[in-house]
Design goal:
This protein is 29% helix and 19% strand. By secondary structure, it is an alpha/beta fold. The protein is globular, with a radius of gyration of 22 Å. The relative contact order is 0.13. The structure holds zinc ion (ZN) (2 copies). One zinc ion (ZN) binds next to loops.
Length: 360
């Protein structure tokens, strides 16, 4: 039974939310597990407006800049009000206790058990069928990316060989594939070499980073921040961020299957970032809020961006709504065709630049 694995982009903006992009949050869904990476302000609202606020399995925070965690107090409070009983673990770089103490004073106590786990680089957390490891990255404060990688899978079953060795198709095939020795035939005799599980790597906020490149080696999906365009490479370096082109170079060198850019600032049109990234690494997508990436096992196909088709969040003003829908209708639906995001919008070009500059 193939295990579902997908990413749901809860918020794809960086620093400042816009009508179309919320602050950083990414939901990894694997089987029944729901793992949230970062929780910018407004994350619970984003979830309520899309896939719903499901019981989270656990939470990982990349670092403690406000745009990555301010949504936690409200989210925890809501879980408490809904009567959550299951304990919830929140992981992050050192400093978590201090931060969450502050946050919880603001939100009021919660009655479920909250485990605050400060991680060190090199830690590997084992879960049912997969592992999660923090990856120290290069930002202005202690910051982690995260790698989530599945356990190895059994090799490919060879039915012809199994039959030749005396097994009968049916239950005997099933048993030997599940690891049993049947009629003297061991799994090793009829299964090929074990296969790697899938791997997802999430950069958090970072300048181009060698440890992250190593961690992302042959990942199925690399989710990398792309705060700046090439013409602000210097500023990216000063602020501990990456340009879209730098993120793409990491993806290319790491030989990942798909690069998903996120953490967009209001300073650059998203279409420009796409162009710059794809020049270095064509298999790049730029998800919008509520888009998902489905990640099948390699033999079943490539990871694919699935555009959100649910209802439009009610907060959008009529003008914005029109633009969004026109964009979706006028242009073909496939990812590779130019989309509404290619057209610079007011939020991309005007006004907020000075504020954005001051904040980063
Ligand atoms: Zn950030
Ligand atoms: Zn940051």
């Amino acid at each position: 039974m193939p295990m579902d694995l997908s990413l749901f982009f809860v918020g794809t903006g960086g620093s400042i939310p816009t009508p179309r992009r919320g602050l950083p949050a990414l939901l990894v869904r694997r089987g029944g597990d729901r793992i949230l990476f970062d929780c910018g302000e407004g994350t619970q609202r984003q979830l309520v407006s899309s896939v719903g606020l499901s019981e989270l399995t656990e939470i990982f925070v990349t670092h403690y800049h406000a745009d990555h965690w301010l949504g936690l107090p409200g989210l925890l409070k809501t879980f408490d009000l809904r009567g959550r009983e299951r304990p919830l673990a929140i992981h992050g770089p050192p400093g978590l206790d201090e931060l969450l103490g502050l946050a919880l004073r603001a939100a009021g106590r919660v009655r479920f058990k909250l485990d605050l786990v400060e991680l060190r680089g090199g830690a590997v957390l084992a879960r049912e069928g997969y592992r999660i490891a923090p990856v120290p990255v290069a930002h202005r404060s202690p910051a982690f990316g995260y790698a989530l990688f599945e356990d190895e899978r059994p090799g490919v079953f060879d039915p012809v060989r199994a039959e030749r060795l005396g097994l009968t198709p049916g239950p005997e095939f099933g048993r030997v594939q599940r690891g049993e020795t049947v009629k003297g035939v061991s799994p090793k005799q009829v299964l090929g070499p074990s296969r790697a599980g899938r791997k997802i790597v999430i950069s958090g906020d970072t300048a181009p980073c060698e440890t992250l490149r190593v961690a992302a080696h042959q990942a199925d999906v690399l989710v990398h921040e792309a705060t700046f365009a090439e013409d602000e490479r210097e500023r990216a370096a000063e602020t501990g961020h990456s340009t879209a082109g730098q993120a793409a170079a990491i993806a290319r060198d790491a030989e990942v299957r798909l690069l998903a850019l996120t953490h967009f600032s209001t300073r650059h049109p998203v279409g420009l970032l796409r162009e710059e990234a794809r020049a270095a690494f064509p298999d790049t997508v730029l998800p919008r809020d509520f888009d998902a990436i489905e990640i099948p096992f390699p033999e079943r196909g490539e990871p694919v961006l699935v555009r959100w088709t649910g209802r439009t969040p009610p907060e959008l003003a009529p003008a914005e709504l029109e633009q969004t829908e026109a964009g979706a209708e006028d242009v073909a639906r496939t990812e590779d065709v130019a989309r509404a995001d290619d057209v610079p919008r007011a939020e991309d070009v005007a006004g907020t630049e000075d504020v954005a500059g001051a904040r980063r």
